[in-house]
């Protein structure tokens, strides 16, 4: 050892390297790139399998006539709100483990490979795509990421650390409670436990996530949460994709001898001679076009709202984009979409 050299303490950054941790070169991780396109393909096939009611012949018919773009759109719309959660969660957990222990791991390497602009973009996307009830959680993750980054990069800047790690989370928590108070009161009045917790806990917890945790439980806490996110996220995405519409819902009014009959289902294919419709019960019907009296596109029924809690007309299950978008005028319900012929 050279005279005057300062030995590096175990578990802490080497002072000869300017306080920057040594990046461990990843090895044998090329298989991860091969798995990237596999998950969407599996989801698309499972969605068609679910739509065909587990019938192989119906599945083959859907695979032959369904557009891949229509199937891919369901996966892309789901990743809009999943990706920001993974980016922010990985950045917070990896930085928290490094600050708490000074040791590197796969979680730390993942966090350091996320540039600051990617984290900022994830916050912007989450702000526009997440529902109102999840925005306090987004604010909590954003404040935690900012506070931990300041602790890591500016360890000796006491003023900046006090501002970002303590003053800013407290100020955001006070503003959040003032702004969200009508929705919080409505959630407690409606005994909506999930919405009440999502609106009240994250702003107050944010100030506790900007500092290190004890080094002994740090690995179990951070890596346990990261593994849980990696395991349960595919299942959550799969559930959302399974319920997403992939075919247009139509109502066909057909001429019969006694009275017209209406067939409501999902349009699989249509040409000059015949229309193929997948009924809601999973039965495929082939209808000749010369028997059709009329055809109408039915609106997406969507899911029934689970709660009516709102903030000045902004319901907690709505995102910023859906709330700011102009609401279409209410259209009259076509009786054919309800299975009744139209005179």
Distance between the first and last residues' Cα: 96 Å
Q: What topology, given as strand order, has the largest sheet?
A: 4-3-2-1-5
Order of SSEs: HHHHHHHHHHEEEEEEEH
Summarize model confidence as the mean pLDDT: 82
Supply the number of helical segments. 11
Annotation, overall tally of beta strands: 7
User: Unreliable stretches, pLDDT < 50, 5 or more residues?
Assistant: 1-25
* Main β-sheet description: 5 strands, antiparallel
What spatial form do the alpha-carbon principal axes imply?
elongated
User: Structural class given helices, strands, pairing?
Assistant: alpha+beta
- Counting structural domains, the number is 2
The proportion of residues forming helix, as a percent range, comes to: 40-55%
* Oligomeric form: single chain
In percent, how much strand structure appears in the residues?
A: 5-15%
Cα-atom radius of gyration = 27 Å
Overall description:
Strand 1 (249-254) and strand 2 (261-270) form a beta hairpin. The longest helix has 34 residues, at 68-101. The protein is 53% helix and 11% strand. Residues 1-25 have low confidence and may be disordered. The chain has two domains: 37-243, no CATH class; 249-338, SH3 type barrels (Roll). The chain has helices at 30-35, 38-51, 56-65, 68-101, 106-112, 116-129, 135-153, 158-189, 193-205, 215-243, 320-324, and strands at 249-254, 261-270, 274-279, 284-288, 292-297, 310-311, 314-315. It has eleven helices and seven strands. It is an alpha+beta fold. It is elongated, with a radius of gyration of 27 Å. A five-stranded antiparallel sheet has the order 4-3-2-1-5. The chain crosses the membrane at residues 31-50, 70-93, 114-132, 160-181, 193-213, 225-252. Keywords: Membrane, Transmembrane, Transmembrane helix. Residues 1-21 are annotated as: Disordered.
